[in-house]
Amino acid sequence: MLRIIRYLALLISCWGSTLSLMAQDKDSLKKNNTKIIFNSDDILELKGTQIAKAIDSLLRPEFRIGGYVSTYYAYYDDESEPNGFIQFPTLAPRKDQFSLNMALISMQYKSSNLRSNITLHYGDVPASSWPATFNLIQEANAGFKICKKLWFDAGFFKTHIGLESFQPRENIASSMSIPNFYDPYYLSGAKLTYIVNSKLNLQACIFNGYNEYIDDNKNKALDFSANYNLNDHVSFTYNFLTCDETPDNIKTKHQRYYQNFYATFIYDKFTIGLDANFGIQQNSYKKDTVKAGKMYAGILVAKYNILPKFHVYNRLEYFSDPNQILTLSLNTGRYIKGNTIGFEIKPQKTVGISAEWRILECDQLIFKQKNMLLNQRNEVIVCLDLWF
User: Fold this and answer.
1) Contact in structure between 178 and 338 (CB atoms under 8 Å)
2) What is the mean pLDDT of residues 220-238?
3) CA angle 126, 366, 330 (to 5 degrees)
4) Do the beta carbons of residue 72 and residue 92 sit within 8 Å?
5) What is the pLDDT of residue 33?
6) Residue 103: φ, ψ to 5°
């Protein structure tokens, strides 16, 4: 009960801050009122692959309020971990029960010179994958336009790295691939965004660390991103992030250079997504620790709309981190690979019902099944998503 009260208090406080920001915006004074919209976008699938629409042309400031609920039932043929979640937990992390990925409420303010975004969430996703501190905050950031086409934003951000999101409504599949599981989910810091034109968007960022809200050492992570929309059907995104997550008391450093590239093709009844990762980390090669270790991963996902409200999809994934740069204490050997097959029904634009089967196969025996260790896991996930 106390947690819920704190959650509501935080929401009211954030809402009040946003309204205060609106009151100070000169554009709001010029137009006399702010347009309040009580819904989110209808189409959110692969949202991260598209350049945000320019807001200079807004007729008046907008304050948008939205909500999202994602529920699921999941079956896994391996055992849960001691914390109650399955191995590789993010989406649908509890087995053999109905549960909640997330209940989310978001508030966005946009004008020609100011913008702010506050998103609060509660459920299995933050419980399994978020830090204990700031556990309820998915995003909280604010920004202003420095000059034409150049924006500065600071705060807590949802990741821009990787094709897939931890919000099922933004993905083709309901589960999260292993390559995107090891991408950062959240970042805290500051961004400079330069909108070159309607097709190209560039970002330079500084963050506390790789998947960090609170910094755990004196180092900072630097990031560069470029998003290019060739046309309404084809999009390319490149991300480069370098960081060192070594504790300050350890002399041997482990500078990481992480590259991510993804592309989407959306045309007529077909949607295709490609995601590729490559990382190098200093002093991390197992056989010779003075040499750099390497990892690489990729996914290929495709969707076909059989009917306007019914589509099927397939996803292939591959992850290789033999030097345990990202897997740390978990030895996955040379690879983890997987295949996902599923379908989704959309009775409304903002409602999705999906069912999928996935098989994961690992080079090592990492999946526990009663008294045995196996190299495979079967999954079945049924998910209901609704947003407004």
Assistant:
1) yes
2) 95
3) 60
4) yes
5) 73
6) -115, 125
